[in-house]
Amino acid sequence: MRENLIARLREGTPIFPGVVGYDDSVVPQIVNAILARHHFILLGLRGQAKSRILRALASLLDDVIPIVEGSEVNDNPYAPISRFARNRLEEAGDDTPIAWVGCDARYVEKLATPDVTIADIIGDVDPIRAARGGHVLSDELTMHYGMLPRANRGIFALNELPDLAGKVQVGLFNIMQEGDVQIKGYPVRLPLDVLLCFTANPEDYTARGKIITPLKDRIGSEITTHYPDSVELGMRITAQEAWADRGMVPVRIPDFVAEVIERVAFEARTDKRVDRRSGVSQRMPISLLEGVISNAERRAIQLGEKEAVPRLSDLYAALPAITGKIELEYEGELVGAAAIARELIRRAAEATYRARAGGAITDEPVMWFDEGGALQVADEVDTTSMYEAFQTVPGLVTLVHHVGLAREKDLATAVAACELVLEALVARRKIARSDAGQYGRAHPEGRRRPDQDLFGGGLSA
User: Is residue 89 within a helix (H) or strand (E), and if so which, with residue range?
Assistant: First the structure.
């Protein structure tokens, strides 16, 4: 691994293709750990690509290696570690049959759960094998090897390490440091050539289990992962991971809609009612984008439109992608996940509009609503009809074209842009929106009336 990593560094090729946002933080630390031949642990909240990084490590292994044919632990023909391989080499010498094992077969991954045993990880004595071969139980030939020895000359990855029982963790640090382990009271020497890497969530140290101190001391490097540092970086990750190419109906996503979707996650990560110890996974904007696309796709199919172009109202149709991925504090539980999700959408829309056209004058549309105007927005209405409806709001369509959110002949993007402006005005409490998608006059001074929802979503008829 070390030699292959050095070759990539010299060539300037990506170390972990597909892993975005860690080039200046996590990746250099992993590189240093491998160069130092350290076992390491990735410590971070959910949805921070920890498992993906571990699986990408297999690409640093040699494509294929020779082993003694029939070996369960990938025995090197020139340095065997199992009794089976040593006996075979003694019997056949240079005629010992050789097999070739690829890099993927030498990457072994296990999810740690409380029911995992030493037998699963290290191995156990197999009485049936002993009886069939006529061996005493203390003979190495009676051993059934676990997952760790089978990863010899490769990588053993263990996810959610704190969930592993303490007695199993003891077996791990013993084999990491001394290379030996006792199975059923019989000492067995296993000088494994294996990289051990782990993942853990910081909250798990107290919530479900802990990493025992001797094991933590033997892990060479503790590397902390993180969420995307910028909205632009998050959008790249979401666009890379989301299933957007649906095949039958072409999908076109306005860039500001993609930005709103990403900002929902950023807003959730700073909301005090959302549990920060649990985190807001990057899977949330990915699932949200897929849900938004699906709603736009359904509308395009039902209305016979040539392409599916998501709107802001599609985010409300995809609320389950938000509510299912946020853990709430006590204050948030009182409000409810659905209400918080709606507010996150509005705040994300306002932040996106402010970043793109924050100085634009919106007095004309606001005055129209203040004078009693109302507008119903429904996601099952076709693009042309919605565009015509938005034209009834003075200055709204002109505004989205003026600030560059949409081109003159692009009706679908203009419709989405109009909704963006209205959502931003709702977030600023200049107008109100009902849960049914109707926009209207906001209450004076932003005070809520009994018929308004918690975040000013009521309206005047």
Answer: helix 83-92
> Alpha carbon of 141 to those of 83, 87, 192: distances in Å?
6, 10, 17
Predicted structure pTM score: 0.87
Reference 439, options 457, 452, 416, 421; nearest CA is: 457
Residue range(s) in the chain whose domain bears CATH number 3.40.50.300: 2-63+103-224
Among 62, 71, 166, 155, which residue's Cα sits nearest to residue 112?
A: 166
Summarised one tens digit per residue, pLDDT across range 28-45 is 999 999 999 999 999 999
Contacts for 29 with CB less than 8 Å, ≥ 6 apart: 221, 223
CB neighbours of residue 374 within 10 Å: 16
Cα distances from 37 to residues 73, 158, 296, 330, in angstroms, run: 21, 18, 50, 45
Q: How far is CA 53 from CA 19, 31, 406, in A?
A: 7, 12, 39
Range list of H helices, 157-312: 166-177, 204-207, 213-218, 231-241, 255-270, 283-303
- The DSSP annotation for 381-434 comes to S-HHHHHHHHHTSTTHHHHHHHTTSS-TT-HHHHHHHHHHHHHHHHHTTSEEE-
- What integer best gives the mean pLDDT of the chain? 88
Helix (H, G, I), strand (E, B) or coil at 132: helix
Give the Cα separation of 447 and 202 in Å (integer).
41
Cα 241 to the center of its chain, rounded Å:
9
* 9 three-class SS: helix
Q: What is the pLDDT of residues 126-181, one digit of tens each?
A: 777 766 777 666 667 777 888 998 999 999 999 999 988 888 888 888 777 776 66
Phi then psi for 93, rounded to 5 degrees? 60, -130
| CATH superfamily of the domain spanning 2-63+103-224 | P-loop containing nucleotide triphosphate hydrolases (3.40.50.300)
Distance of alpha carbon 133 from alpha carbon 59, whole angstroms = 39
Query: For 162-176, how does the pLDDT look when each residue is reduced to its tens digit (9 = 90+)?
Result: 988 888 888 888 777
Nearest-angstrom CA–CA distance, 266 and 348? 8
Ordered DSSP codes for 253-297: --HHHHHHHHHHHHHHHH-TTB-TTT---THHHHHHHHHHHHHHH
Neighbours of 167 (CB within 10 A): 10
Q: How far apart are CA 80 and CA 126, in angstroms?
A: 21
Q: Would you say residue 452 has pLDDT above 60?
A: no
